[in-house]
């Protein structure tokens, strides 16, 4: 049995052992997870309706969704809340990815 590539980044060895993620993969996954959490938090905060509809409601909603998504990505990249840093540390401990990689 040959190596099989999964999602273009990790491969399963012929002995069936699961792949060890690299430190960079863990960092990226933790950042993406923090961004996802931030998007959800911002979406919930936006559900409050003050009844002010000066502009087209659907267009405003689409713009705010894009704005929130960009803000969540930026906040996660900068480590604003530190969720990614904590997730990354925990995953590195569990997988041993922080050992010289």
Key traits:
101 residues; mainly alpha; two-stranded antiparallel ribbon; 3 helices; 58% helix
Task: Describe the fold and architecture.
This protein has one domain (21-95). 58% of the residues lie in helices and 6% in strands. It has helices spanning 23-46, 57-78, 83-95, and strands at 4-6, 10-12. Strands 1-2 form a two-stranded antiparallel sheet. A hairpin with a 3-residue loop joins strand 1 (4-6) and strand 2. Helix 1 (23-46) runs antiparallel to helix 2 (57-78) and helix 1 (23-46) runs antiparallel to helix 3. The longest helix has 24 residues, at 23-46. The two termini are 27 Å apart. Residues 1-13 have low confidence and may be disordered.
Based on Cα principal axes, name the global outline: elongated
Residue-averaged pLDDT, rounded?
78
Biggest sheet architecture: 2 strands, antiparallel
* Helical content band: 55-70%
SSE run: EEHHH
Widest β-sheet, arrangement of strands: 1-2
Rounded radius of gyration (Å)? 19 Å
